[in-house]
Amino acid sequence: MLMLIPTDILLLFISASLALAVAPGPDNLFVLSQSALFGSRSGLLVTLGLCTGLLLHIAAATLGVAAILQTSPLAFNLLKAVGAAYLVLLAVQAFRAGAAGLEVGSHSGSGARTLYFRGIIMNVTNPKVALFFLAFLPQFTDGARGSVALQMLLLGSFFMVSTLLVFGAIACFAGFLGDRLQRSGALQTTLNRVAGAIFIGLAVRLLMAER
């Protein structure tokens, strides 16, 4: 299956994927804020959820379902409205939480299942991700090499692994830093307010997104 894509093309794609994962965006900012507030474990669980969401986007792009979002303003606007509403909900929870609600450690924050599904929802309800895959993956495929769908699945898998590595590193770093910052009650509250502001900013950014 790897022979479907030449090594030079694959290396170029992986380099581009790593660069895109590192570039500041809604997903890695989300991982950073969750890790700083609740520790690396929480950030890693969110990362796993985000990558699961990527699997759905990859499948949608491969099957052509993502094209619906590109042609239907209603579907696009509905999906981003749901995503923005979810981010606002997270922001409200963050603003309401005080220092006492931010205990750091492996058992702090939300449950593992909640964090995992939070990552999935965050990723799936962002229509820009679906359109990104629809525009990005085909650039590295070639019908002369065989099944385009198979090539897109392979490329999508490499993109997901690249994202997992970068976001995992962000989660570990932010968790390490956050663990030390949160020894102060005032800093705990400040981190919570910053997280709420990030969620609001991401919600606004999502609502302003155009196809």
Keywords, please?
globular; mainly alpha; 211 residues; single chain
As a percent range, the share of strand residues is under 5%
Instruction: Note the run of SSEs as H and E.
Output: HHHHHHHHH
Largest sheet: none
Uncertain segments are 99-108
Could you give the distance between the termini? 33 Å
Mean pLDDT: 78
Q: Helix/strand/pairing class, anyone?
A: mainly alpha
The whole-angstrom Rg is 18 Å
**Net shape:** globular
The number of helical elements comes to 9
As a percent range, the share of helical residues equals over 70%
Task: Domain count, please report it.
Answer: 1
Number of strands: 0
Write the layout of secondary structure elements.
Elements: H1 7-22, H2 26-38, H3 40-63, H4 66-71, H5 73-96, H6 112-124, H7 127-136, H8 148-181, H9 185-208
